[in-house]
Write a structure and sequence with these properties.
- With about 80 residues, this protein is an all-alpha fold.
- The chain has 3 helices and no strands.
- It has a domain of about 50 residues.
């Protein structure tokens, strides 16, 4: 099952290469096209990090951490 972040991971290089290639074909110098392509892929990353932030599952957050042994069995 693919989710939002799977699409983001595929879009990052896709946007970088796609925008750079499109602008190069339109006559923008390669250095400028690469700069704008990197900026466009940075927008995708910033959207994934700041607009649609990764959330922690509330069920796993409210449970206390599991202990491997009972609290009174620490032998010194």
């Amino acid at each position: 099952m693919t989710g939002y972040y799977d699409y983001v991971l595929a879009l990052i290089p896709g946007v970088l290469v796609g925008v750079t290639a499109a602008l190069s074909l339109l006559g923008v110098p390669l250095r400028g096209a690469l700069f704008l392509g990197a900026g466009a892929s940075m927008v995708v990353v910033c959207h994934a990090l700041f607009v649609r932030t990764p959330a922690v599952d509330e069920r796993s957050r409210s449970e206390p951490p599991a202990r491997s042994e009972p609290p009174g069995t620490n032998a010194d």
